[in-house]
Design brief:
single chain; 323 residues; alpha/beta; 9-stranded mixed sheet; 11 helices; CE7; AB_hydrolase_fold
Length: 323
């Protein structure tokens, strides 16, 4: 794959044409108020995962609609706390998987909370959380489920689950709620942007190749999933374009980024055909926090920086969450 998007100089100044809805803040305030009307009920069940350097808890808590959401909490063994916490959302189609896949942040001395994505977890990493909410006709995948209205859209549920995941992580006695970071790749990066906007007390955010950003450009510049699901849906539902654009505007990472204040470490891959680099820069350029950086991987597709980016986060995040 060669470079196909804007040149880097143009990316650094690119601004999205995504139109923000007038009631964006009211929509999300109402959504979270409804979710918080349900008892969080966070439960932490110890799990013997055959690991000696970490302690693992199987977590259940109430997400959107009070629905049960699963997660892992991984803690460094023998650390009494309180520990800074890294809350992670998973990439598109994946689930929380198995505990031994989540050793990095606990090995660095952090509590690590990994949210399962409702209804996902059958494409590349196993999930166990069902989505009890039905959907009108949609294209295979998740990006068009309930897309005819923001109230029914799948990502209203997923982002709300993630807000409640941060609150569930804070419910554990060995977690220092005042030192919280959110991270994620792709879909997880897009969700992290939403969290940094909706939870102003976060100390850091690290979104890698974030999905769910600059929908007007994303759905027209790439024919890769997940963005291609929108075009495929509209190819059949020919009169739904305006309703779909309105729905997506409530979930665009560009609008969340404009409300974020926490220090941020982004990453982007310039040959990424899944989350085009212009859509990542759209969120980065809109990001309102005074402290922000972006790592650029010139010759990578959606695998991004991989372990090199993890090493960058390991250098950066401890400074952000220092006591």
């Amino acid at each position: 794959m060669t470079l196909y998007d804007l040149p880097l100089d143009a990316l650094r100044s690119y601004r999205s044409a995504s139109a923000e809805p007038d009631d964006f803040d009211g929509f999300w305030a109402d959504t979270l108020a409804r979710a918080r009307s349900h008892d969080l009920g966070a439960r932490f069940e110890p799990v013997d995962a055959g690991l000696t350097t970490v302690e693992v808890y199987d977590v259940t808590y109430a997400g959107f609609g009070g629905h049960p959401i699963r997660a892992w909490l991984v803690l460094p063994a023998g650390e009494s706390g309180p520990l800074p916490v890294v809350v992670e959302s998973i990439g598109y189609g994946g689930g929380r998987g198995l505990p031994h896949a989540h050793l990095l942040w606990a090995s660095a001395g952090f509590a690590h909370f990994v949210m399962d994505s409702r209804g996902q977890g059958s494409m590349w990493s196993e999930g166990v959380t069902a989505d009890p909410v039905g959907s009108a006709p949609s294209h295979p995948g998740f990006l068009t489920q309930g897309i005819e209205a923001p109230e029914t859209f799948y990502y209203r549920r997923l982002i709300t689950d993630a807000v409640r995941a941060v609150e569930a992580a804070h419910a554990h006695p060995r977690v220092d709620a005042a030192r919280t970071a959110v991270i994620g790749e792709s879909q997880g990066g897009g969700v992290a942007l939403a969290l940094a906007a909706l939870l102003p007390g976060l100390l850091a955010i690290a979104p890698d190749m974030p999905f769910l950003c600059d929908f007007p450009r994303a759905v027209t510049i790439t024919d890769h999933i997940p963005y291609s699901e929108v075009g495929n849906y509209l190819r059949t539902h020919r009169t739904s374009g305006e309703r779909v654009r309105r729905t997506l505007s409530y979930f665009d990472g560009v609008h969340f980024a404009a409300r974020c204040r926490a220090p941020a470490l982004f990453s982007v891959a310039l040959q990424d055909t899944t989350c085009p680099p212009s859509t990542v820069f759209a969120a980065y350029n809109a990001y309102a926090g005074r402290t922000k950086e972006i790592e650029i991987y010139d010759f990578n597709d959606h695998e991004g920086g991989g372990s090199v980016q993890q090493a960058a986060q390991l250098r950066w995040l401890p400074k952000m969450l220092a006591a």
